[in-house]
Specification:
Layout lengths: L2 E10 L4 H11 L4 E8 L3 E8 L2 H10 L5 E11 L4 H11 L4 E8 L5 E8 L2 H8 L2
Antiparallel strand pairs: 1-3, 1-4, 2-3, 4-6, 5-6
Helix pairs in contact: 1-2
């Protein structure tokens, strides 16, 4: 994978809010490659990586949502103990900070994908050959 565009939207923490985003993206034929939702009592922060950033921005805008964006690095990892530790050590050695990360693996697949929000996405992508 590579450097991807991530959108962040603040939503009211109530039923149906995430569904509105998902429906808008579906209508725009945008696939969600990754998503993270962090909640508090009143609001939640939705971070998502779409397959088409321009269409995603338009779809979110069309339903009245203002989304901030930033580059994240999509890092394929072997599904084995220590894989993320090796990547984070390489980034640390290169003085690249990891602000936050989220990822997943499907069942017993051999590969996982981790999305890293880092201080220098382009440099991290080159370093990790993403």
């Amino acid at each position: 994978m590579s450097v991807k565009k991530q959108f962040t939207v603040c939503l009211e923490n109530k039923p149906g809010e995430l569904a509105k985003i998902c429906s808008a993206l579906k209508r725009a034929k945008v696939n969600i490659l990754a998503i993270s939702v962090a909640d508090s009592s009143d609001n939640c922060l939705v971070r998502l990586v779409p397959n088409n950033a321009a269409r995603a921005r338009g779809a979110l805008s069309k339903i009245g949502l203002c989304a901030s964006s930033r580059d994240v690095v999509a890092v394929p990892l072997p599904n084995k103990p220590g894989a993320l530790g090796e990547v984070s050590a390489r980034l640390s050695k290169a003085k690249i900070n990891i602000d936050y990360a989220y990822g997943s693996v499907c069942g017993e697949c051999d590969e996982a994908v981790c999305f890293l929000a880092v201080s220098d996405a382009r440099k991290a992508s080159r370093l990790l050959n993403c």
